[in-house]
Amino acid sequence: MVCLTSQKIDTKLVSEALKALGKENFALIIHGSSFPSKEGEDTGFGTFNSEAGHELIDYAHGIFNAIQLGPAGKTKVSDSSPYTGTIFSGNPLFIDLKQLTEKKWDNILSQATYEKVVAANPNQNQGKTAYTYITKAQNEALKEAWSNFKEIHGGLLGSPLKKDFEKFKKENSAWLDNDSLYEALSIENDNDFWYTWKNETDKKLMNPKSDEEKKAYAKRIDEVKKKYEDEIDFYKFCQFVLEVQNEETKKFALSKGIKMIADRQVAFSDRDAWAYQSLFLDGWYLGCPPDYFSKDGQAWGFPVMDPEKMFNEDNSLGEGGKLMKNLYKKMFKENPGGVRIDHIVGLIDPWVYKVGKKPMCEEGAGRLYSSPEHPELSKYAIAKNEDLDWTLEADKEKRVKTLSEEQIKLYGRFIEKIVIAAAKECGLDKNAIVCEDLGTLTNPVDAVMKKYGLQGMRLTQFVVPEKPEHPYRCKNIGENVWTMVGTHDNLPISMWADSMINTHEGYLHAKNLVEDLFAEAENKDDIIVRLTQDKEYLKFVKITEIFASKAKNIQMFFTDYFQINDVYNRPGTSGDQNWSLRLPNNYKELTPIDLHAILKAAIISRGKEFASKHAALIEKLS
Q: What is the phi/psi pair of residue 64, to 5°?
């Protein structure tokens, strides 16, 4: 039996093997909250900015050349999902409190307070976040740091830290003023969910409908700013500290040859929905049409950018378009490894539904730019009636059957004029864009991705074995993609393999794997039998598959690399247990995958001629 056993990894050998297999990027997927802590420093939430976070980056270098993070926006007190975070503000939970106890921050946080936060963590050294606990504890600790910062630097006009803080506030005022005002209003209205605020005026401050309202709202804003001046500055201070620490981490990672890749969700947070409500399409939400997993569709409740606010009639950027370009410029600037967009369909061909309704055709839902027959959405349609296959319902992927070059360009406006343009202005190119295109892929999305040469994703765990030409199958995976066995939404490959043993579906997977990876083997039937009965071998071959594919870019979720038999996210569930899995603090004692053996098997799977060419490399990997 082939086991995934521990061994000392020869990083030069790994690099040589990856190069031989045509791999340009090998990224470790680990969201910020899942980073480990050092002994005696576990506050209840992971961060890449801590000493332990830097140690993991150091551990990863030489094996990986990139780390794929999760969304880093500020999350709600009541919801730990990073995919509901803010688009500009960072999550203060990623601030490393320990640094604030040190001289470089003038010891603005007492050692006693820091130790108290660590000691009271209910999930101490359990490999889990304690979201409800740390949200409150972190905020209280940061308030102490803010108080001391003011005391130390308040009257020091020449203070470098104070100068940097004032500069930060000025340079980021476009988004920071709105987000910090929202924080003040959350205190005023006793919660951070603006839809339930008692003060109706506070709900609409960013969306006046007349000159009279504009004057009244401006007066209310001034009133709130004066009343909560300190709270507003505290919010800005937290964002400042976070940016300083993030910048230090970025520089450290680059010094180790590691590129950090950001994750930009297609959704907007409640805070953003409030701040930019004038730019959203009134009465509509972004969601997902009915499918195998949800017969009524997925009602996400996220606002949708108004197409008429995104682009002007001459296709130049409107107010909404400029906002989004500024967002992507900020992300590319802060993350030289690029940005993963989750999900690309939501930018190019989004499914929208009416507020108060289900995301179903019969209740008025449709694709924003592909519904020329829709009484309300037709004004935004790029596809015309003659482009549609009328035998298919509006929620079907292939309903738009024909598109002209001009139409493809219109569908791709967001990509070309906002995302790619932002990347270029930050010294990057389209290869810095990772497109999450798993699942639904409509013809307009497919056409745009091909036109601009965008890199999509191939998730081999989700291959449909009955379909020989399925795009997630090894033999069908092309070069210009990112390939992985699973992401944050999937079972670890070990749990998947266990579910396949002695099943018909497992047999179909085994048969395909043998056809694709053991084409020249003389004992194919024996290998199939072994794959259907031995979960460790199935896991080994399934991981080998992504390296054996032609894909130039590989990603691996941390649970798969470190062989952790636990789930990070169970879609559709909420609460502190979800999104809580962390890399254990003792991860260096874990048994990671046997990368030497996997790379050797991947090289051999390419055939005798390829293996003969790399015989010396195979020998060294043995």
A: -105, 160
Note the pLDDT of residue 293: 66
- Return d(Cα 107, Cα 511) in angstroms, integer: 62
Tens-digit pLDDT profile for residues 343-357: 999 999 999 999 999
- 296 CB burial (10 A radius; 0-12, 13-18, 19+): exposed
Residue 15 tokens, joined: 């690099």
Does the predicted model carry a pTM greater than 0.90? Answer: yes
> Half-sphere exposure of 210 toward its Cβ, with a 13 Å CA cutoff?
3
Whole-angstrom distance, CA of residue 69 vs CA of residue 90: 13
- Name all domains of the chain by residue range, CATH numbers in brackets: 1-21+490-622 (no CATH), 22-262 (3.20.20.80), 276-454 (no CATH)
Tokens of 115: 């130790």
259: β partners: 66
361-364: long-range contacts at Cβ-Cβ below 8 A with a sequence spacing of 24 or more?
Answer: 361/289, 361/393, 361/394, 361/395
Q: What is the dihedral of CA 203, 207, 212, 217, to 10 degrees?
A: 50
Which secondary-structure segment (H or E) carries 598?
helix 595-605
Residue/partner pairs of 186-190 with CB below 8 Å, 24 or more apart: 187/228, 187/231, 188/224, 188/227, 188/228
Query: DSSP secondary structure string, 176-233?
Result: HHHHHHHHHHHHHTTSS-GGG-S-HHHHTTT---SHHHHHHHHHHHHHHHHHTHHHHH
Could you tell me which residues come within 8 angstroms of residue 322 by beta carbon, excluding any fewer than 6 positions away? Answer: none
Residue 75: DSSP 8-state = P
Residue with the two structure tokens 């636990």:
566
Cβ pair 69, 262 in contact under 8 A: yes
Helices and strands counted in the chain (H then E): 26, 12
Q: What is the distance between the alpha carbons of residues 24 and 81, in angstroms, rounded to a whole number?
A: 31
CA atoms within 13 A on the CB side of 321: 19
Per-residue pLDDT tens digits for 76-120: 999 999 999 999 999 999 999 999 999 999 999 999 999 999 999
Read off the pLDDT of residues 265-274 as tens digits, 9 standing for 90 and up: 999 999 999 9
What b/e readout covers 604-615, taking b as 16+ CB neighbours within 10 angstroms? bbbeeeebeebe
343 preceded by a cis bond (ω within 30 of 0) = yes
Name the one residue in this structure whose structure tokens are 């999930």. Answer: 123
Confidence band, pLDDT 50/70/90 cuts, at residue 1? very low
For 103-113, give one letter per residue: b (16+ CB within 10 A) or e: eebbebbeeeb
Helices (H), 63-159: 97-100, 111-119, 131-153
The position carrying tokens 């801590």 is 50
What CA–CA distance (Å, rounded) separates 535 from 493?
10
What pLDDT does residue 5 have? 43
Contacts of 199 (CB under 8 A, 6+ apart): 188, 189
Amino acid at 102: E
User: In angstroms, what CA-CA distances link 137 with 95, 108, 151, 209?
Assistant: 12, 16, 22, 40
Nearby residues of 209 by Cβ (< 8 Å), 6 or more positions away? none
- In 3D space, the residue among 292, 401, 411 whose CA is nearest the CA of residue 350 turns out to be 411
306 burial via Cβ count (<10 Å: 0-12, 13-18, 19+)? middle
